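dumping this here before i forget
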Amino acid sequence: MTRSVLTRRTLMKGATAMTAASLIPNMALSKELLRMSTLGPGTSPNLVMTMFASIVNKQLPDYEIQVNATGAATRHVLEVAMGKSMFCMSSPTIHALMRKNLAMYKKIKQAPELVTKLRTVFNFPMGLYHIAVYDSSGIKSIADAKGKRVFLGPPGGAAFTTMKRLFKAVAGLEEGEDYEAVKLGWDAAAAAFQDGNLDVYCNPTNAPSPVLTQIAVTNKIRFLGIPADKLKTEGVQKLTRRPGFKATTLPKGVYGDNQVNEDDVTTLGVTVGVVTNEKAGDDMIYEMTKAFYAGVADLKGSSPWLEVVTPEAAVADINLPLHAGAYRALTELGVTIPDAAKPVS
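structure:
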């Protein structure tokens, strides 16, 4: 099967077009327009980062963050590193891959240099990998995905690579040979699964996910996981030991009576974060970080999913230095900053 490949030429072409388009409204308005890239609606990063933009836009009138919910984080981080976008979702795993020119960065020679241009604003729990099927499909394990249409994640993205490796580690299934990895974005994949055009749908998000909750209202669904006898295998251990990853549990019944799992499901949990460019203004990032956590504290009562978005979680699993402005804000909020998160002098 044809696989999407990141190249510097295609990246620069797209980034240049985005930059040119953003200049028009920027000249027309007094406030500073800033681009933020994240995953599609229904994902935890989209919820958290849209909330970040909403709080900043309301509380800091000098700035307006415009959210772009298309594409993959693996491409977005390159745009931010080159100064073509202000914020994006990233992850400890992405940073590790960039440093070593691995996986989707194998052909991006500049990746090790570009990752040094990135700075963390804050980390947060992305949630856990849901591997969902309809009960009517008869699929009861990852091994049963053989010969099926599977959405692993957007092509070229970290989710795609992670799920591809998990299917191989757990069931020996090879993408493109044993099953069809359907190449879609997050929005299109959710719609395709709802319409019955996918057999297996993977999504790393907090539970309960709004997309899957909606499906479970009228459909019996099952979540696939890592069998107990596979947890200690080399392939699975390589995944759970990746930066920002761990084995975690999707509880039975979290999606109500239509979730048919009789037991909790073991799957992968992951930490992600918001990153910016090293040249982003210190005062701007400081003000945004302080405003965000103040806003989250006010909204937790009406948005329970925000309970896990805390100043302390901002430095969890961190392997990229904090931006100086974020460091100042989190220090004032009483967060103990690990050495790995301290700004580069």
